[in-house]
User: What shape does this take?
Amino acid sequence: MSLDTLPLSLVLDETATTYETVAALPTVVERVAVARLAGKPGSKPPPGAADLLDADEYHRGLAAVDEWALFLAHVLLDELDGLGALPDTTPSRLRLASRWAEHLEHHGDAHLRYAIGLDAREHLLTLRRLSKRGTRVVRTASLCLDTACRGEYVATITGPEVDGDLVCSGCGSRIPREQWQRWGSRTEWVTPEHAAHLLGVSRVAVWQRAAREGWRRTGTRREVRYHREDVLGATVSAMQGTGVS
Ligand SMILES: [Zn+2]
Assistant: This one.
């Protein structure tokens, strides 16, 4: 069924669901990083420009639907009895409008009726596009494993799906999917390098603190990992030691 023949109630209901999807997606969209990693110099916009354009499109898309859903809810609350209070959120306002779509479709004001039908489909198209944008790169907040690098890993995602390698935003090093998928435990156990990075100290200092403070550890020799809580506890006590809190 094409969008033009889809009943207004279904258009509004899908708009509510798609709005939730889009609002849940990360705002920061870094096509610039993708262009750089794809190795196509010359064909990319100035650094930062694509981020800004995308973020702007995202915010404008959602803001337009916010405003429109509020308008629809007010029309219904003004004209129909017993609908209760104005719903709190844009999706719930859209679902209210979906339930009362028949009123909107048969509205006595032909201009309003026409505008609502047109806007409904336009907003849904925008949200569908925003929810299925092509390749994007999203920050993971995981620091680069290379201690000398200040980058963090970014995940390439297609629509709501995460796929492929994680790539460092600083040095471009890659972590294959098979490896990062096993990182379920990375919130618990960190490498000495990562601990040094987190604390901003040398590896030697990490080993000294670990021994002195009895950090929990797993693995031996080169495979040793420290418990993140103990590492972060060291940060807290280091800051308390210097009077920063
Ligand atoms: Zn890096």
